[in-house]
């Protein structure tokens, strides 16, 4: 295309040059023709006045002699003294183009004829219109001929170029179609085109198309590598670096459920029992550290088994695949894990670390069915003791009753805890910021088995909620707390107790609590009941009823884990809580997070306007405590201030 444009430019330039030269030579011809006409006219006039006297030269004679005056543009007769005797003028104008040429060459000039003997002197200028017409015709003809000579080859070349371009396009399209058909069957691009068929279409194109094929193959490999890298990053857990649930599902479907070769092994599900409590009391950074530590323990223990795989399938659960490991060896795996978790628990001063459920698997077993069984095993382990494990055998699944086996065991354990009142109370103070601020100590609960082993608190409360036993647990905690406060004679202290949303929204519980607190009028004023923001949002009408009752008996309300939901301050103005406790996620890295600082400052200002005090929980460092104090919060709680201790 560039060469064709260059051809057009050269042809146009040639035509311009040729036209300029032709114009010049035609102008020379016009000048020569005008000059000859002027010489002829001078000879004619000289002969005319040769035998004439001044009296004989009359206008009538001149008009007759000069062919009606069309020969001359001007004709002036003077006597010998130069006096004008007669003047004839024709005002015909030359065409514009001819006028320019005439002015450049000065072709038309005044001519003179003299007869001294007769005292006649004549000055004239010829009329060159006929020569001008010939000049214009010659010039137009020259332009047309030169244009045809210049541009007919261009038009012809353009036609050839278009035809050639269509042929090349058709050939390339056929080659591309051939290449697509050649690579349509497999997933990988062939490095070379089909040489035999390509030779038929155009052998000159073969090297270029083969270079293109190699380039496409290299690009395909780059894309596949990039996709694999992206997939690995997408399937990787950020905190632990392990594969996530998507990678676990893909691994199980490829290597176990749909494996061509028959295989067997054990699947263990490890659940971190203290994650929620650590997040709430120590902050999310400590929660991430806890998860990383558990993952390292699991990787270290499972690393002794050949081809073992570890995945983090959700925030608190790890899946461990132990290929070719029978149930006997899986039991040893559970024992080793429990020992390592117990050691970690003692070092970190935790009530528990994690529980493990174990089941066996074989090729072709659906993942959903296996996860249901291992979840039951995990529920059984959680109901035993801290860091316990449980292996669900096939013999336990007789008559397909396994679906509720774990729940039934949990129900039995929770009922035993309630009947035996096996609840252990801990206390963690909220430190007031400022002299006039009133704070309190939060009562926290721990539950034990018949053997005195500590049960995982988060799992215990979650199962109580799931089995509709949360109301009984809340009653047990409140009764035990009231008795303890009375026996210890804590007259000067204020105490906070957690109440689940399901209990707060239960009419029978609200009636029971009101009657119970009316019996302890002196204690009621020292009690603060904590309910989560999310729980209060579930039923605003029931939440308002519960808060009104608490205020009626003289107690107070704290909205805990504030900031996690999307509650408006109109909601708080209507419910009128006494305190809000900011979620621990807002204090994590507070000294560096300007957004959290701004949000907490805004919450404090708005809360103080409606008479609500604001506490921060999860304070783990001096820097966080300092920032909280500068933000004008009313109190701080966390492991940096005080760890939970037995009452």
UniProtKB/TrEMBL annotation:
Q: Which residues form the EAL domain?
A: 407-647
Q: What are the TM regions of this chain, as residue ranges?
A: 134-156
Ranges of residues in domain GGDEF: 263-394
Keyword Transmembrane helix on entry: yes
Note whether Transmembrane occurs among the keywords. yes
- Assigned keywords, A-Z: Membrane, Transmembrane, Transmembrane helix
Q: Which PANTHER family match?
A: CYCLIC DI-GMP PHOSPHODIESTERASE PDED-RELATED (PTHR33121:SF79), CYCLIC DI-GMP PHOSPHODIESTERASE PDEF (PTHR33121)
Q: What is this protein called?
A: EAL domain-containing protein
- Species name: Pseudoalteromonas fenneropenaei
Q: What is the lineage of its organism?
A: Bacteria, Pseudomonadati, Pseudomonadota, Gammaproteobacteria, Alteromonadales
């Amino acid at each position: 295309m560039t060469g064709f444009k260059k051809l057009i430019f050269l042809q146009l330039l040639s035509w311009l040059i040729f036209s300029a030269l032709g114009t010049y030579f035609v102008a020379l011809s016009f000048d020569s023709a005008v000059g000859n006409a002027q010489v002829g006219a001078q000879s004619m006039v000289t002969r005319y006045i040769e035998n004439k006297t001044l009296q004989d030269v009359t206008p009538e004679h001149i008009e007759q002699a000069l062919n009606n005056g069309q020969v001359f543009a001007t004709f002036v007769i003077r006597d010998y003294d130069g006096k004008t005797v007669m003047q004839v003028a024709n005002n015909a104008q030359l065409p514009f183009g001819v006028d320019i040429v005439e002015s450049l060459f000065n072709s038309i000039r005044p001519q003179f004829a003299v007869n001294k003997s007769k005292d006649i002197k004549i000055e004239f200028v010829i009329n060159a219109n006929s020569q001008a017409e010939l000049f214009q015709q010659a010039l137009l003809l020259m332009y047309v001929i030169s244009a045809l000579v210049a541009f007919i080859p261009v038009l012809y070349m353009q036609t050839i170029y278009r035809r050639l371009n269509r042929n090349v396009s058709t050939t390339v399209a056929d080659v591309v179609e051939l290449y697509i058909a050649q690579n349509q069957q497999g997933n990988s691009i062939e490095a070379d085109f089909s040489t035999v068929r390509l030779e038929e279409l155009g052998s000159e194109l073969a090297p270029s198309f083969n270079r293109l094929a190699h380039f496409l193959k290299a690009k395909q490999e780059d894309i596949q590598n990039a996709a694999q890298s992206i997939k690995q990053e997408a399937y990787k857990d950020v905190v632990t670096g392990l594969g996530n649930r998507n990678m676990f599902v893909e691994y199980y479907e490829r290597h176990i459920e749909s494996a061509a070769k028959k295989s067997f092994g054990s699947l263990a599900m490890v659940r971190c029992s203290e994650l929620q409590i650590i997040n709430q009391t120590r902050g999310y950074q400590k929660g991430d550290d806890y998860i990383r530590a558990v993952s390292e323990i699991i990787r270290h223990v499972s690393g002794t088994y050949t081809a073992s795989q570890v995945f983090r399938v959700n925030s608190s659960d790890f899946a461990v695949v132990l290929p070719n490991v029978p149930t006997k060896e899986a039991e040893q795996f559970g024992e080793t894990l429990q020992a390592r978790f117990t050691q970690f628990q003692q070092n970190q001063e935790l009530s528990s670390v994690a529980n493990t459920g174990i089941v066996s698997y074989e090729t072709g077993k659906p993942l959903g069915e296996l996860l249901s069984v291992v979840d039951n095993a995990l529920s059984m382990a959680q109901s035993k003791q801290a860091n316990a494990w449980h292996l669900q055998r096939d013999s336990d699944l007789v008559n397909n009753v396994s679906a509720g086996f774990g729940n039934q065991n949990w129900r039995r354990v929770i009922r035993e805890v309630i009947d035996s009142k096996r609840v252990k109370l801990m206390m963690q103070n909220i430190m007031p910021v400022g002299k006039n601020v009133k704070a309190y100590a939060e009562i926290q609960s721990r539950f034990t088995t018949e053997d005195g082993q500590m049960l995982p608190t988060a799992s215990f409360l979650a199962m109580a909620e799931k089995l509709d036993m949360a109301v009984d647990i809340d009653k047990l905690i409140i009764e035990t707390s009231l008795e303890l406060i009375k026996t210890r004679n804590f007259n000067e202290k204020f105490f906070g107790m957690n109440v689940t949303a399901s209990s707060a929204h239960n009419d029978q519980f609200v009636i029971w609590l009101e009657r119970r607190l009316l019996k302890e009028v002196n204690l009621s004023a020292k009690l603060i009941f904590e309910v989560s923001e999310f729980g209060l949002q579930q039923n605003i009408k029931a939440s308002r009823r519960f808060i009104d009752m608490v205020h009626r008996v003289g107690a107070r309300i704290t909205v805990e884990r504030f900031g996690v939901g999307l509650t408006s301050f109109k909601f708080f103005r209507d419910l009128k809580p006494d305190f809000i406790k900011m979620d621990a996620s807002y204090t994590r890295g507070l000294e560096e997070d300007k957004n959290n600082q701004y949000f907490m400052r805004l919450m404090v200002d708005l809360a103080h306007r409606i008479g609500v005090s604001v506490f921060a929980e999860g304070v783990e460092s001096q820097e966080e405590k300092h920032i909280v104090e500068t933000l004008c919060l009313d109190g701080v709680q966390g492991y940096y201030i005080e760890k939970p201790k037995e009452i």
